[in-house]
């Protein structure tokens, strides 16, 4: 398989699974990986840094590509997986024959949040700062966080974004295992793998939180290194694990680190950015990081932002069309982007999108599946029953609050 064909297949896989094709940075990363280049060689002559490819971008890209292809892939092992995915495609089918050309489709344009971004950029440069980015699923928290990290890197700071979705079930089985996963992940993103091996976690004295604190203080926040923006994405994953000590222990440690920054310049070099969906009021208010720092809440797009995004996609929509879209999906950033993406590609008309919206053939199917899976969880059985009752009745139904 040639590079061009591989890119075509990957874009089709990403579009099907995530509703987008590769970004410019991801295209550079994929092309370089296909050619067997080092990160330094990949970014030569580009605006990107090798640390960004090796850390934040790389971890997220290989995770997304793994989900799109249906099997685990990495920089060292992905070509065979692409070939296997390609073999499953039925190119004769009109529904799978559409592969967007880059010049024909613009994916996930970013609409700025001027006030929130200004606050975040100011705070992230302050020693020991802590920011909390809150928003419903697919509201743009990861993109906001990535842009903030890029801003910090341009100001001379280091920056990484660690998603809790990278942790496996065994990593959540105890606080000690989770903190090892946490420290190893940070070390890998910063190129400190050898330092972690040198640290000898099991032989180091103290409990797990003391070990993690000591490792950060000695290596991650070394006096020879610039300040670090540590983004922690999908923090809600912590509360899905069965081991209750993991979320409480980890989050209380983060709060302790933040508070220590007031008296210890070393910890002032750490800037924490937490991205989450829910508030967790059952945590000890004196140990929770959710009631301190700067709170930034991402909201749905307003009319002005929706119109701005439509212009970015070069769509000429009547007010009636925009009203139909807002009536269907409100101002949800992910779904608005997905809608405009399909309209700009001329794959479907607006009426076709609306007609198929609640079905398995609709462009929102992945979004709906995710919410349905949440409803089916054991701890949501009462809510699921309410949902079943609502869709099975022709009359209004009163729900207990």
UniProtKB/TrEMBL annotation:
Gene3D superfamilies (alphabetical): P-loop containing nucleotide triphosphate hydrolases (3.40.50.300)
InterPro entries per the UniProt record, alphabetical: HTH_VMAP-M9, P-loop_NTPase
Pfam family, one: AAA_35
vWA-MoxR associated protein N-terminal HTH domain residues: 1-84
Coiled-coil zones: none
Protein name stated in the entry: vWA-MoxR associated protein N-terminal HTH domain-containing protein
